Amino acid sequence: MSTLTTVADWTITASEDTALFAHAVGDGYWAPRVWNGHGFGIAAADLAAFDKALGEIMKMPLYWQARARRSDSGAGDPAIWSEPRYEPDDDFVYVNGPCRSAGSTPGYRPVSTFDIDLVHLRGLRVRIAAYRSAAGARSGAGAE
Q1: Which pTM was predicted?
Q2: Residue 134: left if φ>0, alpha if ψ -120 to 50, beta else—which one?
Q3: Distance (Å) of CA 8 to CA 5, 12, 47, 94, 102
Q4: Who contacts 110 (Cβ-Cβ below 8 Å, separation ≥6)?
């Protein structure tokens, strides 16, 4: 896998059809949390950088090549992802959808890396951008 981009604490590498997200914090408390095959959570403070990283990947030829290989016209549809939800108890934002980690333990677990098929990044970015826009409107401040 080659590194596609680094944005803030995120490093994203990719193979032919999959993006691997690594966070600089490793697997400590503020590490991304993944429930393999069910969804993930990201510290609320990291969401803007994660959104920016998604946008950077979507500008790259590898993303568009993966989209072209997928004959599914619904690839990239936001409906595959839930609306993000903020959990004030841990200050994380959770999204249900097709992401994977190495472990198979049920429940959200801190991970140092997780991956998502490139074709699903557009839908995820739409969901996160809408969430950030609404959150900015609620707080009276613009989303970063």
Answers
A1: 0.89
A2: alpha
A3: 10, 11, 11, 20, 24
A4: 27, 28, 29, 31, 32, 33
Between CA 132 and CA 82 the distance in angstroms is 14
Q: Which amino acid is at 140?
A: G
CA distances for 6 relative to 3, 29, 53, 129, 132, angstroms = 8, 21, 7, 19, 21
> Each residue of 59-85: pLDDT tens digit?
999 999 999 888 777 778 999 999 999
Q: How confident is the model at residue 89 (pLDDT cuts 50, 70, 90)?
A: very high
Give the bridge partners for 18, in sequence order.
117
Burial of residue 139 (CB within 10 Å: 0-12, 13-18, 19+) is exposed
Q: Which residue has the tokens 């959150």?
A: 135
